[in-house]
Specification:
Among the domains are: 81 residues, no CATH class; 65 residues, no CATH class; 67 residues. It has a 15-stranded mixed beta sheet that branches. Strands 19-21-23-26-29-32-35-37-39-41-44-45 form a twelve-stranded mixed beta sheet, with no helix packed on it. It has a five-stranded antiparallel beta sheet with strand order 1-2-3-5-4. The N and C termini lie far apart (144 Å). Strand 44 and strand 45 form a beta hairpin. It is rod-shaped. Helix content is 19%, strand content 34%. With 570 residues, it is α/β, with parallel strands linked by helices. Helix 5 runs antiparallel to helix 6. It contains six helices and 45 strands.
Length: 570
């Protein structure tokens, strides 16, 4: 079945109604009736035949032109196009938030009807955000190819998660070498370690902002992302939530702040690998743990305990708690603790600890308000507010304790446990063997408070120059009284002012001396015990009674009874 149109110049067109193919029909005609055919003439003929809205293949048109112009009374039919119905496709996005309507052009065929589109949308359950029927129909009426959004869901509005802002520079706290006024650089002094104190504000939490739900094209609720109501970290070591603002984190103690996810913790313990140029000097308002060594010239200060797993070389260590050194201590190190000091590896100074007139002279020193326990000690000044325990031996030290001093182990053989130096305790000095075969001067004393004696000596040393200066000023004033023409009122006033100051200072010293003397009680049961022996030359002093041992002795217990030194074996 076909529908043929008028033939002109041997060319006509027909539509095969079964296959919907558009055919060009060429029939022989008189030569004077033929034309030089081209594509433009063919398209004009199609317009005239009202077939221009069909789909026409340009390549087939060119074939037609070629065959027509070269045909020799040949009749033929050639497909040049076809009738095509408009088609459409409804595509739903993977997230169901958009629906695209894709249209193909209508080429002389059946147009798409609004009802067809609505039916497919209904079958796919598209109910939300659908374009109005009027707008869809207007696009369909054009019959052109198109690709557009026919339905669109409502996007949810994302929420904002809770935020955590550190109010202290935990990660940006740089420690840099100290530049002195003269331009020199102290590479040991890197500045303070970041410390926070109780009730310091550490972190601010910003509450979340809830998002707003949306709807997809199926009308289903789409929940928003974000808006997580994350609380502060469950690890609240050393911190607490403010009672006035639940979104603020406060420090509960004094210590070092450490960032953790969604929070900060404060630890009263600072842990470092070594104390050296890299770490710088350490000042910390808590406890300090050094996992390695403390190198020469470094300084550690802590308000609580200090534990050093390695050794200390020519350094200064201060703490208000207990000090434990698992290695040894060497050089002119200075150890100061308000509690106890324990040195498991022993202490060895560079040289004998002689009394010096220079108050700033560096001395190997260990001072504890509590007790001192040391593996061995050489060339150190050791002071304890309670006891001193030297596990092996004490050589050329100045030991001073308010209670007792014990040195040496029972299985130490013939080696002396106290040799050289001064060993002075209030109640008891006990050693395995005291003195030295080489004649090193060894002084052992009990029966009075060594600290009171030292303070009395300091006061005496202070009074000597004071009294001399008073005497000199008095001589000058006496000379001026005889020769007033050789002075002036300002000089006289200055001399009297200086003299008055010296007199006041001397009176204060005398008053303290009197008070100390009143407290200088004699300990009747004080004693010195040499468990295995005493070498000749050793000085034994109890209260004010001094004995120089004249010959080597075995086990000896020294006491004073009725102001006489007694020696027993038990």
């Amino acid at each position: 079945m076909s529908d043929e149109v008028k033939t002109e110049n041997g060319l006509s067109f027909k539509l095969d109604l079964r296959s919907h193919k558009l055919l060009a029909v060429v029939q022989p005609s008189a030569s004077e009736d033929r034309v030089e055919l081209d594509a433009e003439i063919v398209k004009q003929r199609l317009v005239a035949a009202e077939l221009a809205n069909f789909f026409v293949n340009d390549h087939l048109i060119f074939d037609l032109v070629h065959r027509y112009n070269h045909a020799n009374d040949e009749s033929f039919e050639l497909e040049i196009g076809e009738q095509r119905n408009a088609t459409f496709d409804v595509i739903v996005s993977e997230n169901k938030m958009k629906v695209r309507l894709t249209l193909t052009q209508n080429f002389g065929g059946k147009a798409i009807q609004l009802e067809e589109v609505q039916k497919i949308l209904q079958e796919k359950k598209i109910t939300w955000g659908v374009m109005s029927p009027e707008d869809i129909e207007a696009i369909l009426a054009k019959g052109n190819s198109a690709d557009f959004i026919v339905a669109q869901g409502l996007e949810p509005v994302a929420g904002v998660d809770a935020k955590f802002e550190s109010l202290i520079p935990v990660e940006k706290h740089d420690r840099k070498p100290l530049v002195n006024e003269d331009g020199s650089v102290d590479y040991r002094e890197l500045g303070d370690i970041l410390i926070v104190h109780k009730d310091d504000l550490l972190m601010q939490r910003t509450p979340p902002v809830k998002g707003k739900a949306g709807y997809n094209v199926l009308g289903e609720i789409v929940n928003p992302t974000g808006g997580a109501d994350t609380p502060f970290s469950g690890d609240k070591k050393g911190v607490c939530v403010s009672s006035e603002d639940s979104n603020q984190l406060l420090s509960a103690i004094t210590g070092q702040p450490i960032l953790v996810p969604n929070g900060i913790i404060v630890t009263p313990v600072l842990t470092v690998r070594n104390v050296d140029f890299k770490s710088g000097n350490i000042r910390f308002d808590g406890s300090v743990i050094v996992q390695g060594d403390v190198e020469e010239g470094m300084h550690i200060y802590a308000l609580e305990d200090i534990t050093i797993d390695g050794s200390v070389t020519d350094a200064k260590i201060e703490c208000m708690g207990n000090l434990v050194i698992k290695g040894g201590v060497t050089g002119d190190s200075e150890l100061l603790a308000n509690g106890n000091i324990e040195i498991k590896g022993g202490a060895q100074g560079y040289q004998e600890t002689e009394e010096s007139d220079d108050p700033d002279a560096k001395v190997a020193k260990i001072v504890a308000h509590g007790s001192v326990i040391v593996g061995f000690a050489e060339n150190f000044r050791i002071e304890a507010g309670v006891d001193i325990v030297v596990e092996k031996y004490s050589m050329n030290n100045q030991l001073m304790a308010e209670n007792k001093i014990v040195a040496g182990a029972k299985n130490s053989g013939k080696k002396s446990s106290i040799m050289g130096g001064v060993t002075w305790a209030m109640m008891l000095v006990k050693g395995t063997i005291m003195g030295s075969t080489s004649g090193i001067k060894t002084h052992v004393e009990v029966g009075s408070n060594p600290y009171l004696h030292r303070r009395l000596a300091e006061l005496r040393d202070k009074l000597v120059p004071n009294e001399k200066e008073q005497k000199d000023i008095k001589k000058i004033l006496e000379f001026i009284s005889i020769h007033p023409e050789k002075s002036n009122p300002e000089m006289i006033e200055k001399l009297h002012h200086t003299l008055s100051k010296l007199v006041i200072e001397a009176d204060l010293c005398h008053a303290e001396q009197k008070e100390l003397a009143a407290n200088m009680s004699i300990i009747d049961d004080a004693k010195i015990i040499a468990e295995r022996g005493v070498y000749a030359g050793t000085e034994i002093k109890i209260n004010s009674v001094l004995l120089r041992v004249q010959e080597n002795r075995g086990k000896s217990v020294f006491r004073v009874e009725r102001r006489e030194m007694t020696i027993n074996s038990r």
